[in-house]
Amino acid sequence: MFSSKNPYSFLKVLLCLTLYFFVLNLVFPLVSDDFSHLMTSEQLGGLQAAANSFMTWNARTGELLLLLLGDWLNGVTYSVFNTLIFASIFYFTYQILYVRKPVSTSEPWSILVMLTILMLGSIFGAVFLWRAGALNYALSLSLFLGHFVLVRYYVADQTTWFERASLGSVVAVSTLAFLAGMSSFDMGAVGVVIHAAFIGFIIATKREWNWRYVALSMSFVTGFLVLYFAPGTQVRAGHAANVGIGELIGWLFSAQAPDFFAYSLLNIGKSMFKTNYVVALASLVAVSCSFGMLKNAELQSYRSRLGLGYAAIIVVLLALLFVEGTMAGDALGAVILVANGILSAVIAAILVLKPTRNAHAQTLLFVSLISVLLFIDISIYVISGSPTRRAYFFATYLSALIVTMLVTTYWSNKKTLLVFAPIFSLGLFYVSLATYGLYKVEQERVILPAQSHSGTEPLIIEDYAILNTPQFYGWDFLAKGESVENSGLNNSVARYLSVPKVELKNELQELGPMEFIDYLSTLSEEK
């Protein structure tokens, strides 16, 4: 079915996973912020709710779309929409990786590798399935990739669209580029860096300007600037106790520059410790493979010099930490990550300045550039001291992109399946169990009791359990005890369910797979 001789093998794999994902979306219930979004949209009207969010709290594309469409983007409509987002991410990823249609033996399994890493490294349920999370993260990634697929073709000198696209097509795609730039802080910032680098390359090489590319790039940058300077963004930033960009720049260009670097290293290290190790693993794999590929890429003469330079960077950064008195374990981990980022940037510069048609060199250039973007993305979030697990979704995606390129290029299908198929299967089991379990518990403990509840007494939820898998959940649950009065979530759920008040009686339970299955069985027997 998935033979390399069939050029549609990739599409068959994608179709199977898309159908599976559609079922997950149908089952996944409303949770956490979903209730407040729906109630706000209903009370103020979609347009007013979106405008209010833009002015007072969140100006990202997905958030505004949630409020604008309200209950229309719910149930089956949302399931279809979010499934299309899921499918587009992997289809665009294929284009980013290969810039062509599926033809080789390894390519159908690129989805297997990519999805496995995303299930391991991201908060999968929170960024792909949860209504509020998916439109703020998965949709952002889809828009970002859709925009940069065109740029990827342009960089690869496959410029048909840029030569022939009509004015209407350019306007439509530029509008999507604007929405992409406005959809995410870190993806937007990374996108601006990419465009700035490519525009610099055009100027340096005196390449002819293309008005269609200029329209796309300026639309993306404008979208990001609108997001960054939106009133709601400024209000939200005022609630955070982080070091501001102005202060950081002041450190960098003053006698306090060592403070800037020490602070950055410490926060990068803390962030990596608190999230996951997928990013660190991808960075190490990229560097180790880069040294191996230098020989095959006909750049053997650079290996020793790059090795010495890499060691020197580590020594300098360690010395800086020692002088600043911040030799924490977190910061030591960041030293490796920063050194890897700098090394990748140097390798990429060498390959750009000494272009070659060597296939290994092209792979090395791709991996090096993505590694640089990975480092930039991490730095954007953590220098301010405010890393979150969902914020690392894009970093995890970039890590998956690196590993997928290396695996599908240098591993056989047999080896790929042997390593990734068991992990992939286990991941699907956990995602399926967590999704169904969440639906079952919500129905039996919240929705059905609310439908039969009457009077002025609060709706008391005796117990509430979830599967103990940290790589799935990323939202707030109902509060209990004294916290109920100040819980916006509890109040939103109560209004949505038309009950006076709702509260959790006992602490949230996090159960292992077998315990959770027994718990779900008990719920069924209680009917």
Automatic annotation (TrEMBL):
Q: Tell whether Nuclease is among the UniProt keywords.
A: no
Keyword list, A-Z: Membrane, Transmembrane, Transmembrane helix
List the Pfam families: DUF6056
Entry annotated with the keyword Cytoplasm? no
Residue ranges crossing the lipid bilayer per the database entry: 76-97, 109-130, 136-155, 162-181, 187-204, 211-230, 275-294, 306-325, 331-352, 364-384, 390-411, 418-439
Q: Which residues form a coiled coil?
A: none
Full protein name: DUF6056 family protein
Query: Species name for this entry?
Result: Vibrio chaetopteri
